[in-house]
Amino acid sequence: MQLIESIQSQVSKAVEALYQSTVPSESVLVNTTPPEFAGQYSVVVFPFVKLAGKAPDAVANEIGAHLLAQVSEINAFNVVKGFLNLEIDSAYWHAFLQKNVGNAHYGRQPNRREKVMVEYSSPNTNKPLHLGHIRNILLGWSCSQILEAAGYDVVKVQVINDRGVAICKSMLSWLKFGNGATPESAGIKSDHFVGDYYVLFEQKSKAEYEAWQQTAAAQAIFAEKHKSGQSEKEFFKDYKNKWFNDHSTLGAEVRDMLLRWEAHDPDTLDLWRRMNGWVYQGFDQTYADLGVTFDKLYFESDTYLLGKDIVEEGLAKGVFYRQDDGSVWVDLTDVGQDQKVVLRADGTSVYITQDLGTARMRYEDFGAKRMVYVVADEQNYHFTVLFEVLKRLQEPYADGLYHLAYGLVELPTGRMKTREGTVVDADDLIAEVKRIAREQAAERGEIDAFTPEEQEQMLHTIGMGALKFFILKVHPKRKMIFNPEESVDLQGQTGPYIQYSYVRINGLMKRVQKEGVDLTISTQYSDIQPQEHELLVALHEFPTVLQNAAREYDPSLIANYCYNLAKSYHRFWHDLSVFNAHSPEAKAFRLQLSKGVGEVLKSGMGLLGIDMPERM
RNA sequence: GGCUCCGUAGCUUAAUGGAUAGAGCAUCUGACUACGGAUCAGAAGGUUAGAGGUUCGAGUCCUCUCGGAGUCACCA
Whose C1' is closest to the CA of A438: which nucleotide? Predict the structure, then answer.
């Protein structure tokens, strides 16, 4: 993108020479020219109009003349309504292709010897992964890839919430109702097996609660405590947690199990390891299907007691204060937040205590001064507080913390709810997109030429391409409406649309190889068509898009870029002949251009975790 | 109620303060005896929730109103 920089710098010099005013070159706005005008890049000259004291068109013409004289790559310019459109010499584009086609690192930044940690996924171990996790996982993976391409050393970590009441519910349920069954004996994927016992627990608990509501004791509580006008049903809905803690037999058993776990009771720990082992086995399968990996796992069972030393430090530094009952607090009212507990009166940790401790531990483990937490936006408040506290504690990494908050995934019918059975299971969804891919490939009759292994591979690539692109094309912050039918569309603005453009290019390249076409004569081709310019400008822009995506932590920028590039390519393909081009030079040029497009598409989609098929 | 985020075509969405708000789906109409039709072209569909303001220029920034979501636990 040195061309853009030299344009900016020359505009700055022109303004200085012509109007005796200083304009920093990086503030000069250079846009791509819309297709209806001649030229590839446009300079916005409105900001200089006042400095010049002339009409916009006059300013544009003066600056244009200066650029034409000073920037050798500029061939011609025109002025439309105060916009200065620049036409770039074909020699520049030939050199650009010559230099970058075939360069696998095109667009990527050199290593900057700086670590970034990206935390994503963070599942609980009591049930299988669902659609919400998929968005989290895809964002986390893609961000990691983007940051790596931007030159960082990325450490991908996962925090596994492997302890607490939830997993105890699954454990207790299995003990009481499982009769020693295993995922193998039941023939169920092992994380689903554990999840089924969690659901069973909730069912049993609900039945117990409903029976209890009929007892004299329950009726007495209702009579005594209900608010005026509150129905029995409403009252008991609100009372559920209290009941579970004070009256439920199952509740008492679960708490008892959690206490035994904390006391390191061997039988309990054995059961816990066994059931978590089943869950991890299932998770591994889902992660493999999604094509993601982690460099380091942190288990909550190892970290849940951390952070108390930091609380002591914070007390000494005056960042925290202790109340009469012994609990420790931080006062954030001066930054518009509340007062928050960081340690209970009995000296035990709360959520944020753990996160303080884990943050420091991870810094000590890897020395990353930047950490990205991929967590749903319902936890915005928690991270605001966490980051503010770490800043006040003057932790060395405090300025590099970023919460990549993404909107919840909702169905057209509303939010997913476990108890209403509307949760979209991750494995089911993956199977479904592959099924649709098979169905559509079969309709075209194109699947028969492949071996079963090739079919499996290809349908996985296409199905996952559709699913991943569908999720990643939306800006992370945006709440996403997930329509299962549209998510498996393979036409239009989709992953397979982009994959198809790659397959077309791949077909060309095979023929190039077979026929031994010489691509080096393309420098004689000077009559570059609009469809070709569109592709050149897009390829030229890739490094900037990548940098922006890394800076914004935003994979959707890459997704939309890839879509636009593929769209331009399909149009190019339709309008112009490649192999039957009117001259050998045009043919060589178009093949080289196609090759470059294919490489950038593969590279860009790779940043989203999407593979490109050779055929489809 | 406080804080945060969001509101763009029937639906899903794009647009570092810059040209006539750009796509896809759905609807309608077309296009291969040429490199793969999972493609391409066209039609129709918009007061960017509303009202003010800043600016040469606002979907974008500021203020207010309306509508929606999240959060405001000694749960994680």
Answer: B38
CA of A349 to C1' of B73 (A): 14
* Token pair for A211: 């029976």
Structure tokens at A110: 């050199």
CA A300/CA A122 separation, integer angstroms: 10
Round and report the angstrom distance from CA (A460) to C1' (B44). Answer: 37
For B68, which residue's CA is nearest its C1'? A479
State the Cα–Cα distance between residues A462 and A19, nearest whole angstrom. 57
State which H helix or E strand residue A508 sits in. Answer: helix A495-515
Nucleotide nearest to A326 (CA to C1'): B74
* Chain B footprint positions (protein CB, under 7 Å): 2-6, 11-16, 18-20, 23-26, 34-36, 38-41, 56-57, 69-76
Residues 6+ apart with CB under 8 A from A2: none
Q: Judge whether A501 and A570 are in contact, CB under 8 Å.
A: yes
Nearest CA to A480 among A240, A135, A190, A202? A135
The size of chain A, in residues, is 616
Say what the pLDDT of residue A1 is.
56
Amino acid occupying residue A584? P
Contacting residues for A542 by C-beta, under 8 A, at least 6 apart: A106, A107, A561, A600, A603, A604
pTM of the predicted structure, to 2 decimals = 0.95
Token pair, residue A117, equals 């940690």
Residue A167 φ/ψ region, left for φ over 0, alpha for ψ in the -120 to 50 degree band, beta for the rest? alpha
> CA A336 → C1' B23, Å?
41
Nearest Cα residue to A440 out of A509, A507, A494: A494
Q: Are A601 and A501 in contact (CB under 8 A)?
A: yes
Pairing of strands A41-44, A83-88: antiparallel
Cβ–Cβ < 8 Å for A282, A192: yes
One-letter amino acid for residue A29 of the chain = L
Confidence of residue A390 (pLDDT cuts 50, 70, 90): very high
Ranges of beta strands (E only) in A45-152 are 74-80, 83-88, 115-119
Residue A602 and residue A612: Cα distance in Å, rounded? 6
CB A171 within 8 A of CB A272: yes
Instruction: Give the SS3 label for residue A347.
Output: coil
Number of Cβ atoms within 10 Å of the Cβ of A451: 8
Q: How far is the CA of A332 from the C1' of B18 (A)?
A: 41
Helices A266-290, A165-177: crossing angle, 10 deg rounding? 110
DSSP string, A459-482: HHHHHHHHHHHHHHTS-TTS-EE-
Q: Which nucleotide is nearest to A504 (CA to C1')?
A: B36
Q: How far is the CA of A242 from the C1' of B23 (A)?
A: 52
Residue A413 pLDDT grade (very low, low, confident, very high; cuts 50, 70, 90): confident
Tens of pLDDT, residues A319-374: 999 999 999 999 988 887 888 999 999 888 899 999 999 999 999 999 999 999 99
Contact A328, A338 (CB under 8 A): no
The nucleotide closest to A163 (CA, C1' atoms):
B76
How many angstroms separate the CA of A13 from the C1' of B48? 38
Give the closest residue to B70 (Cα–C1′). Answer: A378
Which structure tokens are listed for A385?
């507080």
Q: How far is the CA of A315 from the C1' of B32 (A)?
A: 77
